[in-house]
Amino acid sequence: MDNLSNIQWNKVAPCLVLLILDVVLEFSECTTQAEVNKHLQLGMDFLVRGQLSDALTHYHAAVEGDPNNYLTYFKRGTVYYALGKAKFALQDFSKVLELKPDFTSARMHRAEVYFKLAEYSKAKEEFLQVTYEDPYNEEAVAYYNQCDSWVSEARLAQAYIRGGDHRAAADTLSRLLEVSPWSAALRQLRADCYIALNDLFSAVSDIRAEVRECLKLDPEHKLCFPLYKKLKKVDKLLLQCEELSEGGQFSRCVESGRQVLKTEDTVTLVVRCLHVARLSSCSGRRVFWRTLLMPTSDWRCWTMRAKDGLAPRDRQGIP
């Protein structure tokens, strides 16, 4: 009898184990989905209030909880888009289309990202596909019709540069950047044009934008991050020099100048600043700033001028 009971129990036990596991997994799945829904709701609440970073945090959690939900990727992608993070927006919109190829809104957003990056050929293909899926999408049609003209504008800018007409090239690139503000390549070209025109104020603005975009995409970038840290330190010391000079504390001003040189002794701009400070005992404020604006071939100087605010009246500081 005991043997019979054991045999029956051995047959039933695996079924009971599977049943228990099924209940546990079902409960776990319900809990996870509830958490995902909560994160989605919180993300939407923050998005409505314009708190994009907080919304992004909750959308990250929602994606981790449900990595196969195309709508979650789309919502996170729209936040990246609003933040100007083109690389991550493209990744999310592409994932959406991988999971649901006929999701027209995601394709439209991806096309717009390409357009803002000045990748007009890719943008044109995407806008065309949108018109196939939604023939009455007037925005997609309008964008599609613009792509070829902006390609021509980009080629015209290159032709101006080859011909040495940097002013015309800069003007053309400015028009392009109005519609494609996320293009680092266009901004670099325009900075080069401004440099050729000796318009360093405008050049530093474009270079600074590139450095910040670099750090936005990769906060620990091996080239951008160390440079940014050094520029912050140099900026602080140069500001200290200016304040000490204005306060008549010339010896301390010179000492701050020496600290600048210890921080950065290879950039022509810093060496010039210190040299002038020593010659004038930091009292020639006008001479000091005029020296800051002297032309130089070192692009890092232009970046430093941008971080340094270019002139006392323009000082913005480094965030």
TrEMBL record:
TPR repeats lie at residues 36-69, 70-103, 104-137. Keywords: Signal, TPR repeat. The keyword Cytoplasm does not apply. The keyword tRNA-binding does not apply. GO terms for biological process: protein folding in endoplasmic reticulum. GO terms for cellular component: endoplasmic reticulum. Coiled coil: none annotated. Residues 1-30 form the signal peptide. Pfam families: TPR_11 (PF13414), TPR_16 (PF13432), TPR_8 (PF13181). One of its GO terms (molecular function) is protein-folding chaperone binding. InterPro entries: DnaJ_C3_Co-chaperones, TPR-like_helical_dom_sf, TPR_rpt. This is Uncharacterized protein.
